[in-house]
Amino acid sequence: MAVPAPTAGTRWRCTLCGNLTRFDVTRSSRVVEYVHLDLAGESRVEEQEVLSESIESVRCRWCDAADQVELVDRPGAEV
Q: Has this prediction a pTM greater than 0.85?
């Protein structure tokens, strides 16, 4: 089940411990990259296009709770 990402007006909050700042996020993405290899064979990504991305899970770093993270309004954000 995908977890919604925070927006300009929302943020994550752990419902068990109240954590607002530390989370382990498991994310899947599908990207196209333009990779430049120098003559020595070292690679560098020069362009990246994200085709799709989803957040699979968010785990609280403080209490290790999984599936207990919700989206709440950011203070001062216009709703």
A: no
